[in-house]
Specification:
The chain is an alpha/beta fold and 311 residues long. Helices cover 54% and strands 11% of the residues. It contains 13 helices and 6 strands. It has a 6-stranded parallel sheet with strand order 1-2-3-4-5-6. Helix 10 links the parallel strand 4 and strand 5.
């Protein structure tokens, strides 16, 4: 494939399954979510790991002789081999980037706990409805995700990770109210950010979508320890709000680098440098992952940044 991917909003946990998930998250993920997300792992729904009574314990191993279950585990083994190859490729490219004196900001990745629930289990259309109907269960599930995120942070520390990429999927201005953001999205995310910082890891937080109304909230982090990248924000306002707290970056529209006019991109680049460069703490960047671009426009953007962005 040579084009970007799209993620469909799907639910892999039903509304009436919160209690089952909360009682045993790992078992639920293995026997419910994995089979629903991947058709070649459907047979994992036949296995169980809860029977500790001697006879029942050994009897629970019988499904492992099922040809479909065996095939599912062979599929997992094959996936593991491919991920090993993937990671080797990532390590190679990271080495190349380091040789070119380009900082590798995504040595590891971590979602916000709210996004872990919405992105991976319930879907972004369902969670807002759940917050009206069963808010306590949603909050408890977010707590489980926060625990998983904290464990992931500890593993990053052991691996010597310096930067953690954190894409914020569901916290945009038009996805939830400020009240919902402050109550359900930010607190757990804030704690994960602080935990990463305590481990000497710099959170590289990508604020996807519109983030103008969140600026006063996301500044509640330790000073000088976080990088915020923006997709759609009033970059001048972001600079004014976060100048003494965090480094910011963004948000030249990716579409402008593909379809825009060179002159417009040059003027926008100059405007952003004039507004955001004074005092430091600004990274020139585009709004989102750039799969394609107009070479002439991109070169103009680069040259303008290098010529006008000198301190």
């Amino acid at each position: 494939l040579n084009t970007g991917f799209q993620i469909l909003d799907r639910a892999f946990m039903e509304e009436d399954e919160y209690d089952e998930f909360l009682s045993d998250p790992s078992h639920f993920l293995m026997t419910k979510v994995f089979p629903r997300r991947h058709k070649n792992l459907a047979a994992l729904s036949k296995i169980g790991f809860r029977n500790i009574f001697s006879a029942g314990h050994f009897a629970s191993m019988q499904p492992f002789s099922d040809p479909d279950v065996i095939e599912a585990f062979l599929t997992l083994a094959a996936a593991g081999k491919q991920m090993k190859q993937w990671n080797a490729g990532v390590a190679y490219l990271s080495g190349v980037a380091a040789e070119m004196q380009t900082t590798v900001a995504n040595q590891a990745g971590q979602l916000a706990p709210y996004d872990m629930l919405a992105d991976m289990l319930r879907g972004y259309l369902n969670v807002p409805m759940d917050l009206f109907l069963i808010p306590d269960k949603v909050e408890a599930a977010i707590g489980v995700m926060e625990t998983i995120a904290m464990q992931s942070a500890a593993q990053m520390k052991q691996r010597g990770v310096e930067f953690c990429f954190m894409p914020l999927h569901g916290g945009t201005d038009d996805f939830m109210s400020d009240e919902t953001y402050r109550k359900y999205y930010w607190p757990s995310l804030q704690r994960v950010i602080e935990k990463l910082i305590s481990f000497g890891i710099t959170p590289y937080v990508f604020c996807e979508g519109k983030y103008n109304t969140r600026l006063d909230v996301i500044k509640e982090v330790p000073k000088g320890k976080v990088i915020y990248m923006f997709e759609q924000v009033d970059i001048v306002k972001a600079k004014e709000t976060l100048r003494d707290v965090a480094c910011i970056g963004g948000n030249v529209p990716g579409a402008a680098l593909v379809f825009g006019k060179k002159e417009d991109v040059v003027e926008e680049t100059k405007r952003m440098i004039d507004a955001c460069a004074p005092g430091g703490g600004f990274i020139m960047d585009c709004s989102i992952v750039l799969d394609h671009y107009n070479e002439e426009v991109f070169e103009a953007w680069y040259d303008t940044t290098m010529n006008f962005g000198k301190y």
